[in-house]
UniProtKB/TrEMBL annotation:
Transmembrane segments: none annotated. Keywords: DNA-binding. PROSITE patterns: HTH_MERR_2. The lineage of its organism: Bacteria, Bacillati, Actinomycetota, Actinomycetes, Streptosporangiales. This is MerR family transcriptional regulator. Residues 18-87 form the HTH merR-type domain. It comes from Streptosporangium nondiastaticum.
Length: 325
């Protein structure tokens, strides 16, 4: 039998505090259909029935309907709401669980937003959009697996410096719980980069070249390598501050100082032969995408890393001018 939505609660013998579904709908702004559905599921059970079988609700129905509506607006399911109303679980417990669930949803929405902004900015094809969406929604474990697979592909089977390999694996991109748009964009770009076959091949060529160089001159220890990098950074910064172009005669003094340090850590004698050898190492290993890899990791992890790319570019150009001039 359908409920009488307009039935008056003041029939003979009834309590004036009982309401029909129609009255509840008018008092709460909910639809009759919604109240009837919630009543059928047991979250707002009727208190009594009329002689004709229509449902009547007591004074607590208004409060229950208000709570049910609030919890439904917050995404809580009716089975859980029924547990709350029956005091099997508390509102606080429900709130904690759903707050955590909302964190996951917000994170997912942020990732989707990053994908859509990237697609809009790049004018991507449907295929590229699908790829970016997959990359953005990877789990933490899947992201680590993707980077480890890239490292394995680039360096597997090579006699790579263990410290270098350890730094690659320890520099794993880790998206925070609430990443910024910049961090999400950086992750999508990094994930695309490490899957680029050209980038992988270039990194591997540089590693193979480094391995050959070590066989010729021996492997320098980490401290000596750091000293050479620092000398190049400081020397090129001084040259650029002075406005010295790498292919100018004035650059020769700076090149001599930096090349001498490089020769020392390589256990070689500085001179034309060494500088030709050094230029080959620099050109083989100077892939700007490698610097881009670390810049993206730094953005994702919130790191502040020194940018060696300008120094490497200036030094390479200056050594090239010296060798070929």
């Amino acid at each position: 039998m359908d409920d009488d939505t307009s039935y008056s609660s003041g029939f003979p013998g009834s309590a004036s505090s009982l309401h029909s579904i129609g009255e509840l709908a008018r008092l709460t702004g909910l639809t009759v259909r919604t109240i009837r559905f919630w009543s059928d599921t047991g979250v707002v059970p009727p208190t009594d029935r009329t002689p004709a079988g229509y449902r009547l609700y007591g004074p607590d129905a208004l409060a229950r309907l208000g709570l049910v509506r609030t919890l439904r607006d917050l995404g809580v399911g009716l089975p859980v709401i029924r547990q709350v109303l029956e005091r099997e679980i508390t509102v606080a417990e429900v709130a904690a669980v759903h707050a955590e669930a909302l964190d996951v949803q917000i994170r997912t929405l942020r990732l989707r937003q990053a994908v859509l902004r990237a697609v809009a900015g790049r004018g991507s094809t449907p295929e590229e959009m699908e790829l970016m969406h997959k990359l953005a929604t990877l789990s933490d474990q899947e992201r680590r697996r993707l980077i480890n697979e890239f490292i394995d592909s680039a360096f597997e089977g090579l006699d790579v410096d263990p410290d270098f390999l350890a730094s690659m694996r320890s520099g794993m991109p880790e998206l925070p719980e609430n990443p910024s748009q910049e961090q999400l964009d950086a992750w999508v770009e990094l994930a695309e980069l490490v899957q680029d076959e050209g980038f992988r091949a270039g990194i591997r060529r540089a590693a193979e070249d480094q391995t050959r160089a070590w066989k010729e001159s021996g492997r320098p220890d980490g401290e000596r390598t750091k000293r050479a990098a620092q000398a190049i950074k400081e020397g090129t910064e001084a040259a650029r501050r002075a406005g010295v172009a790498p292919d100018s005669p004035e650059a020769r003094r700076y090149v001599d100082e930096m090349a001498a340090v490089c020769a020392e850590i390589s256990d070689r004698e500085d001179g034309p032969e060494f500088r030709a050898w050094l230029l080959e190492r620099l050109e083989t290993g100077n892939d700007p995408r490698y610097g881009k890899y670390w810049r993206l990791v730094a953005v994702i992890n919130g790191w502040s890393l020194p940018d060696m790319e300008p120094a490497t570019e200036w030094f390479t150009a200056a050594v090239r001018a010296a060798v070929r001039g």
